[in-house]
């Protein structure tokens, strides 16, 4: 007498889960690429224009007090214009702060300091 029966595993549920996860990861990937491609920092005259998809900020460069490196999480800042974890915080004279992630941080800061040499750099 045989106690074990041949049992076929039901993998249909697993196939649906795999497809669902693949679709979700694809959507997240497209959103990240869209956001990365749409993130821009432009110096125009005496203004710094920050853009991410759906948001835009214009900062008067003469109002920038300091620029410093930012840790992974900065809960006091609501103005995120960064797609990278390698970020900078721009603090302006009224206390507002903006998080940015320029590809070339040193060059970015030096370009701003050419316009406003009083900007304190802590990078």
The total beta strand count reads 8
The whole-number mean of residue pLDDT values reads 82
Task: Please work out how many helical segments DSSP would assign.
Answer: 2
What shape does the CA trace take? elongated
At CATH level 2, the architecture is Roll
Could you say which structural class the secondary elements and strand pairing correspond to? alpha/beta
Could you tell me the CATH topology label. Answer: PH-domain like
Give a brief outline of the structure.
With 123 residues, this protein is an alpha/beta fold.
Mind explaining what this structure looks like?
By secondary structure, this protein is α/β, with parallel strands linked by helices. It has a single domain, classed as Pleckstrin-homology domain (PH domain)/Phosphotyrosine-binding domain (PTB) (PH-domain like, Roll). 31% of the residues lie in helices and 33% in strands. It has two helices and eight strands, in the order αβββββββαβ. It has helices spanning 12-38, 105-115; strands at residues 40-44, 47-52, 55-60, 64-70, 79-81, 87-92, 97-100, 120-122. Strands 5-7-6-4-8 form a five-stranded mixed β-sheet, with no helix packed on it. The protein is elongated. The N and C termini lie far apart (77 Å). The model has no long low-confidence stretch (mean pLDDT 82).
What is the strand and helix layout of this fold?
Blueprint (H helix, E strand, L loop, with lengths): L11 H27 L1 E5 L2 E6 L2 E6 L3 E7 L8 E3 L5 E6 L4 E4 L4 H11 L4 E3 L1
Parallel strand pairs: 4-8, 5-7
Antiparallel strand pairs: 1-2, 2-3, 4-6, 6-7
């Amino acid at each position: 007498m045989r106690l074990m029966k041949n049992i076929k595993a039901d993998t249909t549920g697993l196939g649906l889960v795999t497809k669902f996860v693949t679709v979700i990861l694809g959507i997240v990937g497209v959103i990240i690429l869209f956001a990365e491609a749409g993130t821009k920092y432009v110096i125009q005259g005496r203004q710094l224009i920050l853009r991410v998809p759906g948001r835009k900020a214009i900062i008067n460069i003469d109002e920038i007090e300091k620029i410093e490196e930012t840790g992974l999480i900065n809960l006091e800042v609501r103005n995120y214009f960064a797609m990278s974890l390698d970020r900078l915080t721009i603090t302006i004279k009224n206390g507002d702060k903006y998080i940015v992630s320029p590809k070339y941080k040193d060059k970015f800061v030096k370009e701003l300091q050419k316009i406003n040499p009083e900007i304190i750099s802590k990078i």
